[in-house]
Each structure stands twice: as structure tokens, then as C-alpha cells.
Amino acid sequence: MDSDGKLEGRSSEELRPTSDLFGLRQRPIARSGSNQLDNGLNSAPVISLVQWDRRDPFHVLINRLRLRHFRTYESLDLRLSPGVTILHGPNGAGKTNVLEAVFVLGTTRSFRTRSDRELISWQQEVEGTNRFARLEAEVEANGGPFRVDMAISEIPARGPAESTVRKQFKFNGSPKRASDVVGSLKCVLFSPEDVSLVTGSPSVRRRYMDLMLCQIDHHYLRLLQDYGRVLAQRNALLQRLRGRPEPASLLEFWNEKLVAAGTDIMTTRKTMLRVVNDFGREAYEELAGLGEELSVRYRPSLEEAEEAPDNHIAALFVERLNKLQTKEIYQGMTLCGPHRDDLQFAIGGMEAQSFGSRGQQRSVAIALRLSELHYMTNRTGEQPILLLDEALAELDDDRRELLLRLMESHPQVLVTTSNIASFPLEFQEKSTLAHVDAGQAEIRLPVRARAS
Question: What is the pTM of this model?
Fold first, then answer.
């Protein structure tokens, strides 16, 4: 990490994919090991998985995940090792809750809800006590082993007001801000809803960019936080300026701050997406195999920023704000900036959002997640944990086979399914199977581990 708090990364040229970037069609990598069961834990369900050689320093690996009053889990102690763990069981059993817990610890936010209150188990209701949830992960990464903790507490309100929710974080036992722990546990999530990256609103695509960058670049995270505060203040001022005779002087202070943070956000996204475009094109070619080329294009709301040199963007931003000033005051909101950016996907020159088939759109979504995985790996030297939530659902045989090969070659994978038969028997025998139901998990270790 450099003096500005920005993670040192490789240049965009060093991150360009090679012809063997994904290797999804290569022969699967086999694993072996022995099982160790720790009987000295508390009364929570203990799940101990197959051991594996952890000497490779370039993997992010969860050794242990503990949950308390989180969603359907009153108490769970999950011991993990590298390899594939298949969480299977009926719908609503709590499989996705495990993935969500890992994702929350890695990003400080859920991928399923905006309300942290929903993360606390409702079964915990006891008169006179405050509801809370605790999450803890013991992790190994390039920088060595560490522990990250998160506590979510509901603080009752006095009177008719709604209760508030507070999140607290610790890193190796020391209290930290949320921004300090983001990205310590790097992860990439695949889910059937990923098709919304193509078909959904621009906010979904901005979230894709921001979650990827925030996990590997704390400077970018601080920029987003600063920009959000400035944007809120500027919008509030715009709403107060209707009918004022000389608004320009009042806006000047916030314009300067908006341009400073917004320009850095746009240039960072622009640089990242040049690389993601190359990764995405390579991944889509392996997924689709139809000779169709995918392009990922950055569409900033400041259109000139797409092609302009980075050192010209600030001046262009100022010019656009000046032109929009009257309209912004009338509408009471900021109409230009990275908060209105978007991405555009094209297959063979045709816009995928409007003209792509459902299968093409799903392939684009998978290609974007693969690009995210490899971009983060190349920038940090660490392979994130792979989380797949019903990721094989609605896939044809070829795409399913490619994802299975990806899982077999990745250091640590947690995957959920309501249909264990969707995984080939040979794949199941090399994986740890965890049958999940009603907040409990019954473990069946890989065949090789049971035989050792």
C-alpha cells in the first residue's frame, strides 16, 4: 500500500489477458488431504472440512466462520479448508445465508438487502434485551493470518421512532472503521440475479464497478465516501437556491470539491474498465464459443470523459456544471458526475441490453464476474474466495461444464444448490457436501478424505 493508502497495483498493460487467461477448458485439478475434527469448540454445530496445503501465499482462504444470531443461524461454527464446499438443501434452509455472511465480512454490506436490521435473527427476540448478530472469520491471505469481526446491534428507540442499527468492526481484536476492513476478506459472488448486470438499471452496474474497486483500492473507497458527502451537500444547496439572485458564488465551493473527487473516480473507473474489457472479451469467447466478440464500454455521464485524456477531465467537468447550473437549480439535483455513470455491453457490435438473447445476456454476466475475479487477482496477487449462489441454475451444459472446471481449479469455493443432482457424481466425490436445513448442517467429506 502506498503513502496515500492506495494499493500498489500493476499497470494496465501488465494486466492484459493472455490467450490462456481463464483456462476453463483445461483438465480439472484434483485435491487430497485428511480431515481433522476439533471437539473443543462450543455447542454450535462444528463443521470440519478436508485439509489442504496452505503454503501458497497467493490465496485468500477462510479457515473458520462463526455466526451468532445471523439470519437463520442462532449459532454456527464452520471450519473450512480450500477446495469446493457444496451447500445443498431445500429452498429457505439457510444456504445462501452462509455466502451472505462471507460477503458481508468482505464488503461490510449484504448483497440481498439494504437493511442491516434484516441480518439479525428474529428468533432472538427476548424481552428486555437488544437484538444483535455477530460474524467472525479467521482468514489467511498474502499478508498473513488475520481475524475480522462484525457486530450488528439494534438500539431500541424511545417513543414511536424506529429503532436504529449500529455496526461495529474489529480486525485482529482491534476496533476499526468499516472502511478499514473492506477488502481484507476478498470475495467474488456469482448468482442467477447477475443477469441484471446487463438488463438492470445503471445503479446495478455502478455497484459492480464500485464493489470490485473498493475491495482492492482503499483510496477509491475514500473517494466514493467523499463524493457522496459532497453530492448530498450540493444537492441540498441546489434545492435552497431557487429564486436566489447570485447562486454561482454559493455553488463554487461545492463544485470544486465535486470535481476533485468525481474526476478521480472517473479516471479510476476508466482505467479499470480498459482491462476488464479485455478480460471480458476473452471470457466471453470461452463461454460462448460462437466467434462473437464482447465489448465492455464505459459510459460516463460526462460523455467527453470517455475519450478525453485524464488531465482534461476536470476542466470538462467544470464546463459541464456551469452549463447545467440553471437546470440543476430548477430540478434541485446534480445532473452530471460519476453517480450517473453507466456501462454498455455489445456483442458483435450489437447492444446486448436491448438486442441480446437471454443466453447471450447470461453469458455476458458470467464473463463480467470472471473479469472481476481475474482483475482483483492480478491487481492484488491474491485469489478471492469464490461464492456461487445457485450459479448453475438456468445454464446449458457447456456453460455449466465451464463453471465446474473453474470451481475445481480455484483455491476455495462455496457454492449453494437446491438440486445436488445438478453436480456430476465425480465432482461431488471430490467436494465437501454440506446438507443445510433449518440452521443446521450435516457434513459429508470428500471420498478421498474419508478413505484416508
Answer: 0.85
